[in-house]
Amino acid sequence: MSATIPEPGRAVLPRRASRFPPGAIIAPMATETFLATTGQIFLRLLEMHGVDSEAFVREGGYAPEVFRDPAARLPASAVDTAARAVAERIADPAFALRAARCWHPSNLGALGYAWLASSTLRTALQRLERYNRILSEKATFRLENSSKGLRLVFEHGRKDTVVAALGTDYALSIVMDMCRMNFGASLRALEVTLCRARPAEPAPWEHFFGCRARFGDARNSILLSRRDVDEPLPVSNRQIAGTLDAILTRQLADLDRSNVAARCKAALLDRMASGETPGEEVARTLHMSWRTLQRKLSDADLTYQRLVDETRRDLALRYIEDPGKSITEITFLLGFSGQSAFTRAFRRWTDASPSEYRTRKLGIAAQAG
Q1: Residue 102 gets which letter from DSSP?
Q2: What angle do the packed helices 304-320 and 339-350 form, to 10 degrees?
C-alpha cells in the first residue's frame, strides 16, 4: 500500500512497518522533518549504484510521488533508516560523494534558485545557513570567518556513526558542487575536515574536494578562500534573489509557527517597502496583541526595534548593490524619514556611507569583469 501525499505543512509518516519506523499516514509536524523533494537526490544516487529506487521507496511504505510534491515533508528518522539500509547494500565507503552528480536546484525549492541568483559564494552560503531549516530540521550549517577564509561547518545531528559519515559526505559533496556551479568547476577547498575515521583509501575525498582531507577531526567542515567566496559571480541576479528571500522567510516562519521572530520578520518584509512598520499593525498580522508580541520577542532576547533594524539592514545591503536604485529611492523603500537618517544607519551597519559602499562594491565587480 502506498502513502498518501500530504496537505501543505503536514508531515508524511509511513503506512506500515518495514525498514522505516511505523506511524500514521498523515501527522502534524511534531517531529523533525525534511523537505520531500530533496529526497529525489537520494533516489538518483541509489539508481547510480544499481539500486531500484522505486522498489526501495515502496518497501519503506511511501509512494514515489510524494518526493515530487513541493509541499510535502517527511520524518528525518526515515533518512537515518534508509541510509543504514543503503550502507548495507553498497560496499563503496565513498559512494555518497556522488550525490554531487544527482542534485538539481528544483530539489531545494526556492532556496535552490536563490542560491543560483546569489551575488557571491559568501551570500549564497549565508542563505544556506539562514534557510537550511526549510530543507532539514535536524542537520544544520554554520559559517565561521577566519584569517584563512570562510569555513562552512556541517552538524548532522546523528548519533549513528555510519549514518553520520554518509550524511556528511552526502551534504558536503552537494554543497561543494553547488559552489562550483556558481563559481566554476575549478573551485577547490583550502581544507576539509571530517569526523569519520580515516578510510583505507582517502583519495576519493581528496580528489573530490581538491585538497588534503583531515579525518578523525572534531567537526565536519569545508574551508574556502576569502578571495573565492567574495568574488562577484556572473550569474547573480539581486532582484530575483531578493524576491526569493522574501518567499524563504515566509516559508521559514510557516515551518515553525512558534518562531515569533521569523514570523515577525516575514511580516516586516511585506510592509517595509511601503514604509509602514508600526508594531501594532505587525502584531495584528500575527494575530496577537502588541503587548503579547513584545513579551514573546523579549523571551527570545529580542526587541521589535532590533528586528526592524535587522530587516532594514538586510534589505539595504541588497538594494545598494543594484545600480538601478538611487540612494533616495532606497531611503524611502526602507521607510526612513530622510536620506540623512538612512546614511547614519547605513554607516552604523557597515562603517561606510551608502555611496562609499556602492562605489567600492561596483569597483570590485568591474575589476572582476
Answers
A1: T
A2: 90
Residues 6 or more apart whose CB falls under 8 angstroms from that of 146 comprise 223
Q: What is the pLDDT of residue 337?
A: 81
Contact 124, 179 (CB under 8 A): yes
Type of residue found at 158? R
**Cβ neighbours for 180, distance < 8 A, ≥ 6 positions apart:** 187
Q: Which of 198, 200, 190 is nearest to 217 (CA)?
A: 198
Looking at residue 186, its pLDDT comes to 94
Q: Shortest CA distance to 246 belongs to which of 106, 103, 130?
A: 130
Q: What is the mean pLDDT of each run of 10 residues along the chain (369 residues)?
A: 34 36 33 87 94 86 83 83 88 94 95 95 95 92 92 92 94 97 95 96 96 96 96 88 90 76 78 72 86 88 89 84 86 86 93 89 56
Task: Collapse the DSSP code of 151 into the 3-class scheme (helix H, G, I; strand E, B; otherwise coil) and give the result.
Answer: strand
Three cell numbers written together for 299:
523571551
* Half-sphere exposure at residue 1, Cβ-oriented, CA atoms within 13 angstroms: 8
Distance from C-alpha of 74 to C-alpha of 91, rounded to nearest angstrom? 27
The alpha carbon dihedral of 49, 192, 117, 249 has a sign of positive
CB-CB contact of 140 with 153 (8 Å): no
Determine the 3-state secondary structure of 223 from DSSP.
strand
Alpha carbon separation from 39 to 30, 45, 286, 325 (Å, rounded): 20, 10, 32, 40
Contact indicator for 249, 177 with CB cutoff of 8 Å: no
CA 335 to chain centre: 28
